[in-house]
Amino acid sequence: MPNLPNVDAVLLTASILAGLGGAGCAAIPDPPEPLPAPEAPQAAAIRLDEPPPDAAAPRPLAPRIHWTPATPAEGTLAVLTLEPMPQGLPAFEMTAGARDNEIALARLKGGAYFGLVAVPLNTDAVPVEVNVTFIDGTRLTQHLSLLVERQDFPTTGLSVASRFTAPDEQSLERIRREREIIRAALAVVSKRPLWTGAFILPRNDATTSPYGQRRLFNNQLRSRHTGLDIRGRTGDAVYAANSGRVILARELFYSGNAVYIDHGLGLVTGYFHLSERAVREGQWVDKGQLIGRVGATGRVTGPHLHWGLYLQGAALDPRTLLELELTEIGDRLLSPPAIVE
Ligand SMILES: [Zn+2]
Known about the structure:
The chain is mainly beta. It has four helices and 22 strands. Strands 10, 13, 15, 16, 17, 19, 21 and 22 form an eight-stranded antiparallel β-sheet that branches. A four-stranded antiparallel β-sheet has the order 1-2-6-5, with no helix packed on it. It has three domains: about 1-40, no CATH class; about 65-145, Sandwich (Immunoglobulin-like); about 155-330, Glucose Permease (Domain IIA). Zinc ion binds near residues 209, 225 and 227.
């Protein structure tokens, strides 16, 4: 049998011997190595200048939708992947939204898209809508609902200067103005990832206050902790958790000296209460670059770094960034994140 590959030849020999001599015969050679898994069929591009092999015109087919984790926890984010059906009509445009916010989609090698979905606090389900426009103009909309795992958050009491729990009229006006500036800055979504590889902690130190903690300021003002506090002394270095562009770097009423970095696809990290800022608005920063120093500016009980994560208008747990497999997804991107100054 000169034309048969080795493994097949062994298989054939084994079955002949088994048929002749029965099981347990010493002449039967060792079991063959498992056959290599067949290669996945290539997603064939649809040629529009010739009819498909089965002569049936390709139809507009809904893309396959995946998300991870399967049941995201409140205060985290999920990664959404949209995979067009290879035998369907090519998609001209794909868009997605969650809770009335657009999800910025990046194209992956092979034609799939991915985007990030915010899962805010106090949510049982996140509605997601996916819209596809095919090259023939047909539109298709899919609705899904991401079920959310609720969490238990601890409660703590804190004492701060009274001007932070009962701000005067002038401060209230400033707070309103700054809320608008922050909202506008977070609403600008870069359409491609600006981050590279895994996210890192902005300071390698202990967590002093977790995300989501229920707080009672001066026994009168109830609030939620919408970031993660990391220990540090005044003057200690604070580093960018990943590459991106500085969208805000200024002194704010509650956050004190603050720096916000846009990492693309709507993902923004914030660094608050700094004693000094080392970057300016509009500046590109690399992962691990010094962006400021720990301080005690704004509404604080003492020096520390408050690290925040924002997506689609929600403040999320920044630890999500360290746990998610964004690295692998980043490596599969069709256009790699460009480093520009
Ligand atoms: Zn904090």
